[in-house]
Amino acid sequence: MKINDALSGAALVALGAAVLWHIQGFPPMPGQKFGPAWFPGLIAAGLIACGALLAATRLRAATRDPLLALPAWARRARPLASLAAVVVGLVVYVLAVDTLGFHITAVALLIVWSRLLGAAWRFALPVAGGATGIIHLAFYKLLKVPLPWGLLKGVVF
Amino acid sequence: MTLAVLSQALSLVLDPYVLWVVFASAAFGLFVGAIPGLTATMATALLVPVTFFMPPVPAIAAIVTATAMAIFAGDIPSCLLRMPGTAASAAYTDEAYAMTKKGHGEMALGAGLVFSAVGGLFGTAVLITAAPALAEVALKFSSFEYFWLVVLGLSSAVFLTFGSPLKGVVSLLLGLLVAAVGLDNPAAFPRFTFGNAELSGGLTLIPIMIGMFAVSEILRNVAAMEQPWEMAQARIGNVFTGMWRLAKRYPLGILRGSALGTAIGALPGAGADIAAWMSYAISKKFSKEPEKFGTGHVEGIVEAGASNNSALAGAWIPSLVFGIPGDSITAIVIGVLYIKGLNPGPTVFMEKAPEMYAIFFIFIIANLLMLPLGVAAIKGAKQLLRAPRELLMPVILLFCIVGSFAINNSLFGVVLMLVFGLLAYVMEENGFPVAPAILGMVLGAMLEEHFISSMIKSDGRLLGFFERPIAGALGGLALLVIAWPLVRAWLERKGGKP
């Protein structure tokens, strides 16, 4: 996604301003010039300056780009769907993993992702199962990472 | 360095477990490096969650080996597909592909392999001699020197690149802002935490890096999945043929590439990709036959191939001695060093001498192992490049999720990974480089701390920052780097050509 420099410049100015406003509440360091607000204040000033410069450079240029432009591939269905699937899949993982458990969520996501990217069922299914199994062995068994069981809790124990 | 330390170091390295880790991570590095779209930095980010659970020496060994292999393996798809496997190969991708098209694929691959190893060993030799010596000097460093070193690192990352310096500064500022989150500041005041306990310790860097280096690459990959890869040459013969002749023909180029690569690597903030670009340009400038460059001529590949691997070792010098990363790989490594109790700094060579020398041994082993394993990877390139991306990307993504979760056993890590993955993707699509942001995150706390203690010491006088000789020199160098875009613009206008 191409964002016009004028737009990203404006966003940076807004971010800098928000930070500046927020740090007003930081307490000063007793007996010292440089409190906790000092460093973020400098960063915020920098963001505002750079954002303004970025926007000004873009606005002064002769050509006019649209504010937002999508790359050529975004007009085709498959790349867009794949990209969305990655992002939505990660959100679903965060929301669902504690309820469904790692294993169910992982297998489901792997199948959806690889199918959307064009894998055949006969590869997508065993890879989803196999990869989940290997991660279970490596992270849960060997490295003792507490991957949640979720729905499978009653089944396994 | 005593014999006792060396034998201790050797026994740490010759542990079967460590050797097994070296082999496994070598294979992993070759694979990741050879697949276009999977980078050496990504290999490091993916390894971190696994190394998290290892003792210090194998943990570092895994990263050293995997990155050395990945930087070489990046040359394989350059030759065969005209796609750099890692950013460090991009400088000579067109050249290598042109060689393959002319039927010199073996020589292009061989030069990449052999002179990668040579450059890597050169960089390692410098690392072994320079780092402990530099540490002696660094013992006398005060906050002024450290402040300038950090500034030098940050400004190299912003200004010694090819993109827009303004966008580099923006990226850096965003990184510094991320570093400001949490309690880790001289006043120990909870900044930008909004009452959230997860935020008070600051944002955990490893999930962020997995997001910025792995998830963003996956997003780029899935968006461009439709074009199939076509190999320019299917059968590859003996890649070592003619290498000795090349070494005798271009000794100066090899030396120059290795030395410049090590120096660029050691400069905080600039890494293997910039080293390769500069070495390729210098090789062309000083070549007896510059007109052949770009038509499938091996000279630039020899020099730049040596350069990018030597940069890898060079980058460890400031990382180990000062805790200031030489490139984005070592930016991740520094986090691992802290987790493993090998806190970087000048005293690490005294307190953890056996571990440090063990790391040096690993560098030597990795660069030697590169030759046989590299040949195997080249022979297997056909299969390697046929790896089904539609299955590979989802599995890597799942691995990223579990890795980000495992650092703190918290889903917040996965959220961070997603947010910063998207951010990095959008940033790179719009010409904002990601490396300055990473350096800002790693160095933010150090920058603030050293600035404030220097200001207190000098009573608020900025001139005090230049009064100690080394601090003054470092400060001058940093200001020079910052002024570099202006100098370059002036030179271009004067010379009339870029």
Would you kindly provide a written description of the structure presented here, covering whatever features stand out?
The complex is a heterodimer of chains A (157) and B (498). Chain A has helices at residues 5-23, 38-60, 77-100, 102-116, 121-142, 153-156, and strands at residues 2-3, 68-69. Chain A has 2 domains: 2-69; 75-156, no CATH class. Chain A starts with a strand and ends with a helix. A two-stranded antiparallel ribbon of chain A has the order 1-2. With 157 residues, chain A is mainly α. Chain B has one domain (3-495). Helix content of chain B is 73%, strand content 0%. In chain B, α7 (105-138) runs parallel beside α15 (299-314). By secondary structure, chain B is mostly helical. Chain B contains 24 helices and no strands. The chains are: A mainly alpha (157), B mainly alpha (498). Chains A and B meet through β1, α1, α2, α3 and α4 of A and α9, α11, α21, α22 and α23 of B.
- Largest sheet report of chain B: none
Estimated helix fraction of chain A? 55-70%
Number of helices of chain A: 6
Secondary structure category of chain A: mainly alpha
- N-C termini distance of chain B: 48 Å
Strand content of chain B: under 5%
Biggest interface goes to: A-B, 69 and 57 residues
- Low-pLDDT stretches of chain A: none
What gyration radius of chain B follows from the Cα positions, in whole Å? 22 Å
The run of helices and strands of chain B is: HHHHHHHHHHHHHHHHHHHHHHHH
Number of strands of chain B: 0
**How many domains of chain A?**
2
**Low-pLDDT windows of residues of chain B:** none
Q: Compute the number of helices of chain B.
A: 24
Helix content of chain B: over 70%
Radius of gyration of chain A: 24 Å
Number of strands of chain A: 2
Q: How would you spell out the order of helices and strands of chain A?
A: EHHEHHHH
Arithmetic mean of pLDDT of chain B: 86
**Broad shape of chain A:** flat
Q: What characteristic shape of chain B results from the CA principal axes?
A: globular
